[in-house]
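It is worth pausing here to work through a concrete case rather than discussing structure prediction in the abstract. The textbook approach is simple: state the sequence, then state the predicted structure, then interpret. We follow exactly that order.
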Amino acid sequence: MFPFPFTKITEIQIGFLSIKIWGLLVGIGMLAGLFIALKEAQRKGVKRELILDLFIWIFISSMIGGRLLYVVLFWKDFLDNPLSALALWDGGMVFYGGVLAALVALLLIIKKHGISFWKIADVAAPGLALGIFFGRIGCYLVGYHVGSKTSFFLASNYHGELRHEPALYDLFINGFVLFCILWYLRKYFKKEGMIAWFFIIWYAVARFFLDFFRNTDLPGALADPRFFGFTISQFISLIILCIFLPIGFRKFFYVSK
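Step two, the predicted structure:
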């Protein structure tokens, strides 16, 4: 059992400077992802300048998209103080919102440069998994994503109740494990887009099932809104699978007679 109240750390105070743990870990994750993307870009012959340009626009768009979807889902929490919707440093983002906004920015930029979407996606995928790893460490440390009640040995003690730790599962499955697999497979998957496709399918499937471990009984932003028993992220995961499974089978595995 993890002693949840003792692992919850929202900020580090250094003199007059207050550093938000969640923002710090997300920043570290983005820089780690950029480092990996630059390494992959060099290996695949993609210009370093293009990756740096993409990183800036993807960073900005993902922050806006992730926060925007969070505010839409938890709009009641911002009625009394609408300007608090701008307080990104306090946390509160939806991963898929950030990804979808970043995808739009990516498509616009690569169209301008005339480069393949799948090639850039392959470069970005391992770094994105590593970024998820660090970002979810931040979510775990500050106590976001409180799970449902359980007696599982990895449960945390939340106000006297044993609960799942979705952020802990996510950082391991969609972060550490996925990064290690992608880093290993990247030299063996020869077809352009296979690494990115593998990442997309893995994340969508894992996220769909991991969201069942999130709580439904706590108030406000501690519980994700559910529609017909599913979270928004689960619906997006299903849509992604419906779109990308057939694309992948046709692009990578279909053999014409």
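Step three, interpretation. The CA atoms of residues 36 and 127 lie 5 Å apart. The longest strand covers residues 11-14.
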